[in-house]
Amino acid sequence: EKLVVVLRDGRKLIGVLRSFDQYANLVLTDTTERIHYADVYGDIPRGVFIVRGENVVLLGEIDLDKEDTVPLREVPVEQVFALQQQEKEARVAKEKSRNRVLHDLGFSVDWSRDDMY
User: Fold this and answer.
1) Among candidates 59, 77, 68, 73, which has minimal Cα distance to 2?
2) How far apart (Å, rounded) are the C-alpha atoms in residues 14 and 91?
3) What's the pTM?
4) In what order do the strands lie in the sheet with 12-20?
5) Tens digits of per-residue pLDDT, 8-58?
6) Element (H, E) at 40
7) CA distance 109 to 29
8) What is the spatial distance between Cα 86 and Cα 27, in angstroms, rounded to a whole number?
9) Residues in contact with 53: Cβ distance below 8 Å, sequence separation at least 6, in sequence order
10) Taking the CB of residue 114, how many other CB atoms lie within 10 A of it?
11) How many Cβ atoms from other residues are within 10 Å of residue 84's Cβ?
12) Greatest CA span in the chain, whole angstroms?
């Protein structure tokens, strides 16, 4: 059966279930790691993947009939990484701006690890 597995670190794996045990340890074959951003996604082929049960957050079967009707667009994974990096840089810039305004108003803001005593 084709499954989607969400891991504790946030990764999403899609693969064919070959084996499992009472601890929810899984063996997946033809596994791909799917990276999402907004309405696009990219896949990284991983091959055979052994997942320890304590890392499984969610496990679900993929409906093969509905798999092709997903409203997401596949793009190269490098493009997804670039979009994620742009969002991260924008978020950091916004946070720095907010911290600067708060500091000017007299609030204590943790600027960085170097600012600690």
Assistant:
1) 59
2) 29
3) 0.75
4) 56-61, 2-7, 12-20, 26-37, 40-51, 73-74
5) 999 999 999 999 999 989 999 999 999 989 899 999 999 999 999 999 999
6) strand 40-51
7) 48
8) 35
9) 21, 23, 24, 25, 26
10) 5
11) 14
12) 59
Domain positions in the chain are 2-63+72-115
97 pLDDT above the threshold of 60? yes
Residues for the chain: how many in total?
117
Tokens of 64: 């093969």
Half-sphere exposure of 1 (CA within 13 A, CB side): 11
Cβ atoms of 28 and 19 within 8 Å: the answer is no
For the residues 103-111, what does the mean pLDDT come to? 76
Q: Give the torsion sign (CA, 58, 10, 55, 47).
A: positive
- In this structure, the strands spanning 2-7 and 12-20 are antiparallel
CATH of domain 2-63+72-115: 2.30.30.100
